[in-house]
Amino acid sequence: MYAIVDIETTGGQFNEEGITEIAIYKFDGHEVVDQFISLVNPEKEIQPFVVKLTGINNAMLRSAPKFYEVAKRIIEITEGCILVAHNTSFDYRILRTEFNRLGYDFVKPTLCTVELSKKLIPEQPSYSLGKLVRALGIPMSDRHRASGDAIATVKLFKMLLAKDTEKEILISLIKAEIKNGLTPKLLDIVESLPSRTGIYYMHNEKGDLIYIGKSKNIKKRVNQHFTGTTNKSKKIQIEVFAVTHEETGSELIALLKESEEIKINKPIYNRAQRKSIFQWALYKEVDENGYINLTIQKADGRKKEITSYTSIQEGKNALFKITEKYNLCQKLNGLFETQNGCFQYKIKECNGACLGKESPEEYNERVEDFIREMEFDNNNMIIIDRGRSVNERSAVLIENGIYKGYCFYDLNYQINNIDVLKNIIIPMQNNRDTRHIIQSYLKRNRVMKIVKF
Q1: What's phi and psi for 208, nearest 5 deg?
Q2: What is the pLDDT of residues 40-79, one digit of tens each?
């Protein structure tokens, strides 16, 4: 749990400032679950430049509660939370100073969205809250008021959580919960999870990631882990301490995130997916007669592949369907019954390419039609699909045939302005797995819209 804070002060000498307004949003990583917003009587004059900046004046604060009157509520709403702010050193210092005056030691783990933004959204011209959220297309109102700045920080932090592929923020949260002695049982863990599409992260009692998975129903899938009887399931049941999750709305984004984050974090029980899970690939070769042959071979990074598969059998089955759809000669593509019966595909009557009755030019034109359908080497497109809520959409960006990443957006100008889009995109690695995941998904599923540019 996070307590996202913004504080406005009187200004003045260091450690002599008084709080004039405070806003705290309790955030569970997905949505705001509680909030506290109040003007505060600092019992001292506000500096004139601060009045001009915030619009808060001395008259507005005469009837406002003093800090000691709101202190209990601040302690309650931040209990068990990591304190998050834009420039945390300032807000945390002010809170600690005020509590020290009351004889209370206010100590919390903290995260700073300025420092996180510099790491996760590099090369921005400015990291001031106003300029940063504007560059990211995050709407903002009531600038320099505690509530407006705090809610903008919530939206920024939500984006930073998604961009954190190494899960440093998530792991810091789990370690803080471990320190507080929270030990939920398996049933409690399952009950806390949503029945929605997304990624789930299993942590051990040290906070380390031991398994990453994706599902269209997170609650149901985690419950299967906890009731499974395989050796892996039993080990997970013994070692798991907590399960965190991230909703994606889009199954495509869940597939892409799962693939990348397993390779980055290398959880102990995801051994099979740490490397490329697509070990076989489809290649084109031209034989001595000028005909294009499609062949399934062990993946070779030195050669240009059309698409890839998890097993040779999956590749052969797919190739069989391709030859049927495009009326290609199965014999030319190696799909004939072998002596050991490995691949028993009945040869369909073709146009006679294998007998020289159809010219290479005619035959190859159909093969190239298939290849053009499969490849997006030179494509610039945005795949738009459902987001995490009714009003939100997701976008996957492919530029010059290279997968750049994904994002979630609420406003059309975020997706129509390529500069804003690139700022909010969560960058991801482009590799053989991502290429195959996108190709396979688009073949099997309908998305809301594909925008080419």
Answers
A1: -70, 150
A2: 988 888 888 888 787 888 888 888 899 999 999 999 999 9
- Tell me which residue of 259, 243, 138 sits closest to 182, measured CA to CA: 243
Measured CA to CA, the distance from residue 203 to residue 198 in angstroms comes to: 17
pTM of the model as a whole: 0.68
171-175 long-range contacts (CB < 8 A, ≥24 apart) are: 171/203, 171/207, 171/208, 171/209, 172/82, 172/109, 172/111, 173/1, 173/2, 173/29, 173/82, 173/244, 174/203, 174/207, 174/241, 174/242, 174/244, 175/206, 175/207
Q: How far apart are CA 380 and CA 405, in angstroms?
A: 13
- Tens digits of per-residue pLDDT, 406-434? 988 877 766 777 777 778 888 887 777 78
Render pLDDT for 189-231 as a digit per residue (tens, 0 to 9).
888 899 999 999 999 888 889 999 999 999 999 999 998 889 9
CA distance 365 to 353: 12
